[in-house]
What we know:
The chain is an alpha/beta fold. It has one domain: 3-Layer(aba) Sandwich (Rossmann fold). Helix content is about 30%, strand content about 25%. The strands form two sheets. The protein has a six-stranded mixed sheet with strand order 6-7-8-3-9-10. It has a four-stranded antiparallel sheet with strand order 2-1-4-5, covered by helices on one side. The N terminus and C terminus are likely disordered.
Amino acid sequence: MTRPQPRHAAVPWPATEPQPAAVQHPVIRLDSVVKTYGTGEAAVQALRGVSLDVVERDYVAIMGASGSGKSTLMNIIGCLDVPSEGQFLIDGIDTSSLDEQQLAVLRNRKLGFVFQAFNLIPRMTAVANVELPLAYAGLKMAERRRRAEAALFLVGLENRMHAQPQQLSGGQQQRVAVARALVTAPSLILADEPTGNLDTKASHDLMDVFDRLNEAGRTILLITHEADVAAHAKRVVAVQDGRIISDRRVAQATARPPLLGKRAVLP
């Protein structure tokens, strides 16, 4: 006797067969990147065929001594410089195809920068400093203020929004810089020696902010020469003489209570 067929809708593959995992596309991809300064006998290769992928939600520290090539690498990832050879992509966009104006738009929309020197405007309040990238992007004042306040709440400065930089400690100024990096909801937060001007406690507090932001889903790339800073990352990439000499995953600490509150969520 013929067995009756099931009356449910067909499925694309048997239920017992595992479904494929979602493919993680890289936020940034460097493919055989070379950077040469000068020409002829005076030519210096700062990068020698660097290939690197950073996927969404990753937390990467790039380490290297002075002259290793890590600053050149940061400049290329930050679209502040271009490769002499090879390919660099952000969210699948080939940066070699962009002119200066297009690169500036890409920096504003895709990258959030945190520098060692804070780079805050002295006579502007914290919230006004954080609003600046949104002003360049053409957002209206009310939306700029809403998002800037949310970003400052994310880094624990909701009570210092109207203070000027000289009224803030070094650690607080750097957290304003982190809020400014966050406010455009970038694909990648790029931090260049972010603890270089901070004391031990302020450095610890800042790295705690980065850790919690990554736990909340932010993709972070740190440039550092400090092992204790790199130890916060999920992945440590070592650069020497313009080449990647190691790329390793590190053990993760136990997750902590979230830094974020509902009213601090950025789109």
